[in-house]
């Protein structure tokens, strides 16, 4: 009887994995992965993420009882996939090369986080959004000038979704990774730092805000 149930579960799981692989592949590519380069040899579904499905489902099952917020659940799934995320961006020398955010900017950004039912965003003045975008772009350019064409923007998990939305429109190929999405034992090599002069004052200005 137990053997029969085991085979039934195995068949159901395999069928689920086959049917959902395309959907999970798109989800992973949109929320975790980096867009493929134009003309790159890649199937429409991208990489086969079947092996990661148990980790994703376990993370969702563990946290779904506490929240139905899709954005929060996505971040929980990302944390569970820290080894996959780290492996995706780690260089051959075993190091993860990262653009970091100056604490004088990162800490004030935490107070700008807004959590909605479907998204986690940052509410900041338009000028601040523009300056942060420009600073991140300059850091990325400086990293590439050093021959580091594969770097990540590393930040606090609470602002990761907002930072991804903020820079995603102009810096589509710069991944945004949270500290706790880096697997244990990985050597992180900071290469540039995003900063904003008088960040606390700029971010606390009253008036029009943009949500990113």
Structural notes for this entry:
The chain has about 210 residues and is of the alpha/beta class. The protein folds into 2 domains: about 1-30 and about 50-80, no CATH class; about 85-210, FHIPEP family, domain 4 (Rossmann fold), CATH 3.40.50.12790. The chain has 8 helices and 7 strands, in the order ααααβαββαβαββαβ. It has helices at about 1-30, 55-65, 70-80, 80-90, 105-110, 125-145, 160-170, 200-205, and strands at about 95-100, 115, 120-125, 150-155, 175-180, 185-195, 210. It has a 4-stranded parallel beta sheet. A 3-stranded antiparallel beta sheet has the order 2-3-7. A hairpin with a 4-residue loop joins strand 2 and strand 3. It is flat and about 45 Å long. It starts with a helix and ends with a strand.
Topology of this structure?
Blueprint: H1 2-31, H2 53-63, H3 70-80, H4 82-89, E1 95-101, H5 103-110, E2 113-115, E3 120-124, H6 126-145, E4 152-155, H7 160-168, E5 176-178, E6 187-194, H8 199-203, E7 210-211
Parallel strand pairs: 1-4, 1-6, 4-5
Antiparallel strand pairs: 2-3, 3-7
Helix pairs in contact: 2-3
